[in-house]
Design brief:
Radius of gyration: 15 Å
Helix content: 40-55%
């Protein structure tokens, strides 16, 4: 998404734009758990579409 940003500045970038991003998972195990759950849903229902919740601006 931002290829010009060095990896060590990604946390700083995340903090700067997090008001426009969905909530981040914390940890590898939480990420894998969500990915496997989504995979299960995709396999069970070919019409399933994942839409993360984005913050709303008022």
């Amino acid at each position: 998404m931002y290829p010009a940003v060095p990896f060590f500045n990604l946390p700083k970038l995340r903090r700067a734009i997090e008001h426009d991003l969905p909530a981040a998972l914390h940890g590898l195990s939480a990420t894998w758990k969500e990915m496997l759950e989504l995979r299960r849903k995709f396999l069970a229902d070919s019409d399933f579409v994942y839409m993360p919740e984005f913050p709303t601006h008022t």
